[in-house]
Design a protein that fits this description.
Strand content: 15-25%
CATH class of the largest domain: Alpha Beta
Number of strands: 19
Low-confidence stretches: 522-526
Strand order of the largest sheet: 8-1-10-19-18-17-16-15-14-11-12-13
Mean pLDDT: 95
Radius of gyration: 25 Å
Oligomer: single chain
CATH architecture of the largest domain: 3-Layer(aba) Sandwich
Length: 526
Amino acid sequence: MNYRTPILNAEEATLWEEKLLQNDETKVWQAMNAAGRGAGKKILQDFTEISSLPESPKILVLAGKGHNAGDALLAAEQILEMHPEGEVSILFALGKDGLKPLVAKALALLEKRERVSLFDAKKGIYGELLQQPFDFVIDGIFGMSFTPPVEEPVLTILEAINKNEQISLRAAIDIPSGLSDNLPAMVFKANFTYATGIAKTPLFRPENTEYTGRIRMVDIGFFEEDYSGGFSSNQHILNETILDPLRQLRPSTVNKKNFGHLFIVSGSTTMPGALLMSIQAALRSGVGLITVFTPESIATTLATSVPEAMWVPCPETSAGTLSSKSLALVKEKSKNATALLTGPGLGREPETIDLVSKLLKTIASPVLLDADALQIDTVQAASSRNSEFGSVLATPHQGEFMRLNKSENQPYNKMHLLNFCQRARITTLLKGAITRICNGRTTTCSTFGGPVLARGGTGDILSGLAAGLLAQKPEETPELILGQAAVWHGLAADLLARQQGQAATATTDLLPFLSEALREECTGCS
């Protein structure tokens, strides 16, 4: 499977499915099983961010008549296969009559179970079902071909489910019911959307995040051959196979110099922790050598915390940030650097920002800018960088990006990001609920990670990880380096949340999970 796959609209996705499945009932049934059962396994994994699963989980399936309903029914069947004491209620939102043959086949599998109840919304036979508590609600009413409006009785069902506060996890199969390529009206509000086979464009619109929740790809083999259809979105989604090169054995003859030398020029007396976390993450990236240039008043203290790095105490400003006099020290040793990171804990003193701008114009290695190094002056310096110098990468969050792009108070806009990257000649990783990586031509999305990352310092870990990867492969395309960092960081966050939950964790708890994310197969982490 390719490490990234295209994000398609409804028409493009339908044509590609038809090309692959050729209306062959056997192939469609195999795809439905892969989608439904794959989603069921992922639903169980994601529930562990809340708690361990009850012995007898209660599941509600909202089913339509089409194949999306078949996927949802098979997801429930998979959960029961792994937890036979579970109880499933199936509400046929469009009525039980007239189900597509393969949906009826999926239903027949569930009906063999002992604790399965059926309800027909067309006949009004569901009483107080929608006000009851459930561990899971699995939405499979409408698929990608739905066109608004949402009509009764589905309108009432979705309203009631969205208001029910006794539901632990809301799972949409493929796409939340009511969402389409058109403007949404009434939509199922999911905690997770399990995109089955193909990621659809509505899932990636910022205004739809409240409906989609977090996006999980369910690979069912649709892109084992290269995609050759329409591609209007010009966007891809990453999967975890991007990390496969990092999971391979290293040659037995290598030494530390084979894995790059990262220079980190950052830190201040007021924010030493940000620098420290970026170094700790860089160490775990596999880089061979790290040299840290930081204000002399904190260098000695931090050096004892990270003895693996080499430390260069530098002149500092009265505010405790790096002085412009530090430039000579960095330049003196710069021939050894294969990449440079600056920004974590840097501070915004004009003299320090001027130092970064001069570094961009004089250091030939690729550079990664993060946090306080993301300023208008540094962007201008990056855009004027000599063509023979290495590339410039940036890892802003939305607020930092809006400041750099002079687009305050505006939500994410794909064209803003593309234009910025073209104009500034910077490959950008824009952090958010969906992380977007843009090289000025295309945009690639990572959906790994989640709210466990919504705490100070996780961005410093990401930038350290990315810079360490960059130092090892400075000749690699920046979008691949940033993609590997985003997926690795996000996978580690998923594993952390599944072991410790989303709330009661510290930022540095993420670090040990970087190793675990590489070493285990992570089936279902995507």
